[in-house]
Amino acid sequence: MRGLIGRALLAGSLVLGLAEEAKAAQPDGTLVVTMLGDSLTAGYGLRAKDAIPARLQAALQARGLKVVVRPAGVSGDTSADGLARADFSVRPDTDLCLVVLGGNDLLQGIEPRTMKANLEGILSKLKARHIAAMLVGVKAPPTMGAGYAREFDAVVPDLGRAEHVPAYPDLLGKVALDRSLNQGDGVHPNPQGVQLVVGRLAPAVAAALKSEPRSRP
Question: Is residue 81 among the annotated active site residues?
Fold first, then answer.
């Protein structure tokens, strides 16, 4: 019981600290994009400057946007893990949260309907906090079976339409099939692969930022 009380007090103090931080954050109008995700957004196997968040920030700034991209990825996280930490990992000053989860659900063969329910939960939490969201997914390989792949691939676009949030269903695109653009594990993009991934992603994120004015109280 004492441990539970201690964790509750710690969680409360962290929330209060983040709230105080948000009050004074980005006074110059800089937009904040948070990438809630797994190893792809954690920059697994890469230097921080070569990871997707840093490269995306540079690409958005090159498009004339005053923005910072904040990584909130944890290697190995499933959609359930993202749901469990969404309130803590997505800081209050976030203008747009990119929900980049599902890759580990795919690797673990988690039922697409379960993943969908978790993503719905994340969107619900973000909506309650007046934080705009964008869903970013990955495609299932044919080796997962046609039925599973079809159901899995439909989750992000279907949920985007149902929840009226931008959806980007295929983060990796052709990079996923090109070993020269991936690290030795054949799963995570290398710096050259990241550049191609970000080159496709940046216009979609820029459009989402422009269509979602800051609405939090």
Answer: no
What is the C-alpha separation between 96 and 191, in angstroms, rounded? 25
Q: Does 188 qualify as catalytic in the annotation? A: yes
Looking at 39, 93, 105, 153, which residue is catalytic? 39
Amino acid, res. 68: V
Which tens digit of pLDDT belongs to each residue from 166-179?
Answer: 999 999 999 998 99
The question of whether 39 is a catalytic residue gets the answer yes
| Strands in 23-180 per DSSP E | 31-37, 67-73, 96-100, 132-136, 167-168
User: pLDDT (tens digit, 9 = 90+) per residue, 189-217?
Assistant: 999 999 999 999 999 999 999 986 554 44
Strand-pair category, 96-100 with 67-73: unpaired
Query: Among 28, 180, 185, 215, which one carries the catalytic annotation?
Result: 185
